[in-house]
Amino acid sequence: MNSRGVLLRNMQHNLWQLADSIATLESSDLHGRLDLKQPSGGLQLRSVEKASPFEVEIFGVSQHAAQHVDIAKLDAYVRGRDLVALYDESLPDHLRTQIYWRALRASDLSASCEPNRIAAAFDLILSVNTSLLDSDPQVTVRSEIPASDSIVQLKVDPAPEASAVLVRLGSGKLSYVELVHPADACRSWIKTADAARSQINHLLFQQRLEKGVILRARIRAALISSENDEQLAAQLYQHFAASEPPLTV
Question: What is the CATH number of domain 6-242?
Fold first, then answer.
């Protein structure tokens, strides 16, 4: 994949395609696939350009107790740039979960950002509520990336440790950045999955949840040009941190 922002332009017209529980996203440079029956697997992104291959799995969503998804009770649809899934109550905590996987435009990232330095970008907007008087709503969001000696935890105010991460991909042309909105306090960490893969983990909603309350969190990911990538990633974080909560969820 080059760094001309081709995907961002193509996605204005070629957005999500949804067939049964499988969502796909296509451009001339990138293939995306997500199985809504297995949200823990996340959005699988793969470059189709041989000169700079990569594969990442971002925004896998898991509750602290493994859940079986009843496809008959899954409400999923595409709305503009959003892929939306509403999951029925899970046991034992009777959590109802709403997930937005949102494909972003360059203008969503920063008014001063050069569009040709962003290859692709996505938001995860995650909401939970319960029918119980008291519930444990903890959810882990996990991304799997190629193992790399170049994983940088960005030092940008007010980002807590490991909630702003930059990974330089093996092709050398692109870097991957993942950001948690600072209003969505969580515990984040990076660990080795195996010899080939590393994981970025965010444990969200570490407070008790009662009936009538909705908890929401936002995480942003972007594939960016590797040139001066730390400066660009910090710029993206500051813009994300200053953004208002979305009104459409």
Answer: 2.70.98
